[in-house]
TrEMBL record:
Organism encoding this protein: Mycobacterium asiaticum
Keyword DNA-binding set for record: no
GO molecular-function term, one example from the UniProt record: lipid binding
Superkingdom of origin: Bacteria
Swiss-Prot/TrEMBL keywords: Lipid-binding
InterPro entries, A to Z: DegV (IPR003797), DegV_C (IPR043168), DegV_domain_contain (IPR050270)
Top-level taxonomy: Bacteria, Bacillati, Actinomycetota, Actinomycetes, Mycobacteriales
Membrane-spanning intervals of the chain: none
Protein name stated in the entry: Fatty acid-binding protein DegV
Length: 276
């Protein structure tokens, strides 16, 4: 058989890609009132980002069950699990602990990102496994992909960021900002402020300029995510295609309910993976 690849629901991999590469997904959780909702499994209100919901990591039981299934399907070749950044969720640390029970047959990689920032590393691992790579080779491929990945985001409202506490150094400016449309960046696995911008148009322009500066003349895989802003995401993807003709068209998907809880309505994000 071949090494099997696992991720979590934050990766935002389109279903057709998960199916093509036989990638298993462990659900993250949303806590709403007295309900514990599993992302990708249970029905979650579309306006979850407008409610006073919180999020939680994947559970050890879910991680263990999926790893066990994947290991069985690998016929002993092993499992590589690529998870949401340890700086954004407790999932990676829990996954490390669960992996110990499998005696080295399960390797866990910190994507240091989320959404397709994680997803691109997952796909790289799956491609390496499909090519016949052993457990070491697939793990190294995923880790190398992490180093080529970048993610940026523009949010329209600050309320969710204030509640979430997921952005580093935010207290100094979140409390006094009025119409601020911050450009955020995932740096060393944490969500940080890249630029403070006053208008949505200016923030979007800064986002596009930043992506173009990072990509330069190199080929790159691109993904555009949104929270209830499909038209804005399509326009952003079209602008990137025009500015970066050497790249394939961006994958466009919702950011998903877990991440939407933290960034709020209208958010737009771009994840990219530079070619080797």
């Amino acid at each position: 058989m071949t090494v099997q690849v696992v991720t979590d629901s934050s990766s935002r991999l389109p279903a057709e890609l998960r199916d093509r590469w036989r990638i298993r997904e462990v659900p993250l959780h949303i806590l709403l009132d007295d309900a514990d909702l599993r992302d990708g499994v249970d029905a979650i209100p579309e306006d979850i980002h407008k409610r006073h919901a919180t999020t939680a990591a994947a559970t050890p039981a879910d991680l263990s069950a999926v790893y066990q299934q994947a290991l069985a399907d690998s016929d002993g070749d092993g499992v590589v699990a690529v998870h949401i950044s340890s700086g954004l969720s407790g999932t990676y640390r829990l996954a490390e602990r669960v992996a110990v029970d499998f005696g080295g047959a399960v390797r866990v990689v910190d994507s240091k990102s989320t959404a397709m920032g994680t997803g691109f590393a997952v796909l790289t691992a799956a491609e390496a496994a499909s090519a016949g790579g052993d457990l070491d080779a697939v793990t190294k491929a995923a880790a190398a992909a992490v180093d080529r990945t970048h993610a940026y985001m523009v949010v329209q409202r600050l309320d969710n960021l204030r509640r979430s506490g997921r952005i580093g150094g935010a207290k100094a400016w979140l409390g006094t900002a009025l119409a601020l449309k911050p450009l955020l960046h995932i740096e060393d696995g944490k969500l940080v402020l890249a630029q403070r911008i006053r208008t949505a148009k200016g923030a979007l322009a800064a986002l596009i300029d930043q992506i173009c500066a990072v990509v330069g003349e190199r080929p790159a895989a691109l993904a555009v995510h949104h929270v209830g802003n499909h038209d804005g995401a399509q326009e952003l993807a079209a602008e990137l295609s025009e500015r970066l003709p050497g790249c394939d068209p961006a994958i466009v998907t919702p950011l998903g309910p877990v991440l939407a809880v933290h960034v709020g309505a209208g958010a737009l994000a771009v994840c990219l993976q530079l070619a080797e």
